[in-house]
Design brief:
Number of domains: 1
Distance between the termini: 34 Å
Order of helices and strands: EHEHEHEHEHEEEHE
Number of strands: 9
Oligomer: single chain
Helix content: 40-55%
CATH class: Alpha Beta
Shape: globular
CATH architecture: 3-Layer(aba) Sandwich
Strand order of the largest sheet: 3-2-1-4-5-6-9
Radius of gyration: 17 Å
């Protein structure tokens, strides 16, 4: 995606912490215009204030990515504030882990609502805008579990495989256009996702690692079309 000196209009779901926050800071240093979406207004306001001290124009929107009414309301606000969308980072996600028989229907519904339905709603909303101008970049934050499977991750892995298939199919639909779609598939990342969990976070990827990968995709030239980036921790 050729950028030159253009200030991109970047929408990030799950932008209040972790990977979404790191991507926002990474892109803000070039003065790109950001719209961050999340469910926690206080956290979003804190990120907005911190980024504005560095550089860039930042707007926030409160809502549930899996709610189509919230999606429509937020998209209208994005168009009013930014005038359109050049980059969508569909980053919001949740995960519950455990043996399949120990997981609940509520946990199943929550994961599919956010991780799959939420991605679909936002893809469906921004694609017409990008197709109209024949330019745009979509990034979906996925997982290495979208490329393989693991024990105690049946529901979560299922959602990520769904999203990976969705993006792969979308890439075929976008053939011969300058609208691009990619996934970032990291292993475990040291973010608030793991707060309160008894896991060793010293060997995990950092959110900055993922933000660097997102930047590579966003700023790629017109001559390339990155499919996905698989990142694994450098420490064994």
């Amino acid at each position: 995606m050729k950028t030159d000196q253009t200030k991109l209009r970047i929408v990030i779901t799950g932008g209040s912490s972790g990977i979404g926050e790191a991507i926002a800071f990474n892109m803000a240093k070039d003065g790109h215009k950001l719209y961050l979406i999340g469910r926690n207004q206080q956290k979003l306001l804190k990120v907005k204030e911190q980024i504005e001290k560095v550089s860039g124009e930042v707007h926030i929107g409160i809502g549930d990515v899996g709610d189509e009414n919230d999606g429509e309301r937020l998209l209208n606000d994005i168009i009013n504030e930014l005038g359109g969308v050049d980059v969508l980072v569909a980053n919001a996600g949740i995960g519950y882990f455990g043996n399949l028989e120990d997981l609940t229907l509520t946990q199943f519904d929550e994961q599919f609502n956010t991780n799959v339905r939420g991605v679909f709603i936002w893809l469906k909303q921004v694609l017409p805008l990008m197709k109209k101008k024949n330019k745009g970049q979509i990034i979906v934050t996925s997982s290495n579990l979208g490329l393989k499977t693991s024990s105690i991750a049946s529901f979560y892995s299922a959602t990520i495989h769904d999203v990976k298939a969705m993006v792969w199919c979308l890439r075929k639909e976008l053939k011969d256009t300058q609208v691009k779609a990619a996934t970032i598939n990291p292993g475990s990342v040291d973010t608030p996702w793991f707060d309160g969990k008894d896991v060793d976070r010293t060997k995990m990827l950092s959110s900055i690692d993922i933000a660097d990968a997102a930047r590579l995709i966003i700023l790629q030239k017109e001559t390339s079309n990155i499919d996905h980036i698989l990142l694994l921790p450098g420490k064994n």
